[in-house]
Design a protein that fits this description.
By secondary structure, the chain is an alpha+beta fold. Helices cover about 35% and strands about 20% of the residues. A 6-stranded mixed β-sheet has the order 6-5-4-7-8-9, with helices on both faces. Strands 1-2-3 form a 3-stranded antiparallel β-sheet, with no helix packed on it. The longest helix has 22 residues. The protein is globular and about 85 Å long. It starts with 9 loop residues before the first strand and ends with a helix.
């Protein structure tokens, strides 16, 4: 310990009542002490074990009220924890999942909503971009199961373009890969603008699915339609027809709905604010990539399979 005023080395002078070491300057006589470690959250009044337990319960699919009852933490405190964790996880994903070698990438979108669905908006709410339907674009590497990029936005060309820019930054620019999406019309233009319409970086194909309705629309409101045909359609480059598939990213959509209460259908756990949904998504994907063991990877995490780390991370590691 060095004196802040004299810049000379201090000597130990006992300990404080809370156990921290105290020091005394030999020149001016002032006393100093070590700084208290507030843990990964940097808050002296927050129980770190309870905070980590709350986040663990959140990423395992529990609601805010359930976490409140189990941990005793207030709902506002839990929301603030999710925001803080989401900010750190966004930074981690942007820096750690970068220039990753990829061979086979699948992209899809999953629907959710913030505050209310589009059909329930009224007055001037139609002009609010952060209220109503929200689409989560997800890109996953087929072999390693690593989520390379995600984006929260509307189902538009601009959102698809932003998503493709994130996907471009997360993949190795020197390695060409095959890319498969569904039949969303915004994808070909976005991929052509960002990844090259001449197949410079990708061999791109769409899997266009045709559904049939066996019963009237009102009767099958919450029932999935029957798949009649799936048509592999090459768009750019020379994609391998046998690998034109979106099953893995669609399975990831199921994981999202099971592990995120905000995306569970027919509940009141939906997001009330756009920022909260964005933070929860970043926390989920960081936890999925670095902390969650994958059965098909024999107990490894997607980040380990992709060579980004050599061990399974804990939530404390994720947020440190």
């Amino acid at each position: 310990m060095t004196c802040h005023s004299c810049l000379v080395q201090c000597k130990k002078a006992g300990k404080r009542s809370d156990g921290l070491q105290r020091y005394r300057c030999t020149q001016c006589g002032k006393t100093f002490s070590d700084r208290k470690d507030f843990g990964v959250f940097g808050h002296k009044q927050l129980n770190e074990e309870k905070a980590l337990l709350a986040l663990q319960l959140i990423v395992e699919g529990n609601s805010l009220r359930t976490v409140n009852r189990i941990t005793g933490l207030g709902r506002n405190t839990i929301l603030r924890l999710v925001e803080l964790a989401g900010e750190r996880c966004e930074t981690l994903l942007a820096t750690a999942v970068k220039n990753v070698p990829a061979k086979d990438v699948q992209c899809d979108e999953i629907w959710s909503f913030v505050a209310k669905k589009d059909k329930h908006k009224h007055g001037g709410e139609d002009n609010f971009s952060e209220v109503g339907n929200a689409w989560v674009f997800v890109g996953i590497e087929r072999t390693t199961k690593l989520v390379l990029a995600h984006h929260l936005g509307k189902r538009t060309i601009s959102s698809a373009t932003r998503f493709m820019r994130k996907l471009s930054a997360s993949t190795d620019p020197a390695q060409k890969f095959q890319l498969t999406t569904d039949g969303l019309a915004a994808y070909p233009l976005a991929i052509g603008n960002v990844l090259g319409h001449e197949g410079d970086r990708v061999d791109y194909a769409q899997l266009i699915k045709i559904y049939t309705l066996d019963v009237p629309e009102d009767a099958r409101r919450y029932s999935p339609p029957r798949l009649a045909e799936a048509i592999p359609t090459p768009i750019y480059g020379d994609p391998d027809e046998e690998r034109i598939c979106t099953s893995h990213v669609e399975r990831q959509n199921l994981t999202m709905r099971m592990c995120m209460r905000r995306l569970t259908r027919l509940t009141n756990g939906f997001s009330k604010k756009w920022e909260n949904l964005r933070a929860a998504l970043a926390l989920h994907f960081a936890w999925y990539n670095f902390c969650r063991k994958h059965i098909t990877l024999r107990g490894a995490t997607p980040a380990m399979a992709a060579g980004l780390t050599n061990r399974v991370w804990t939530l404390a590691d994720l947020l440190a």
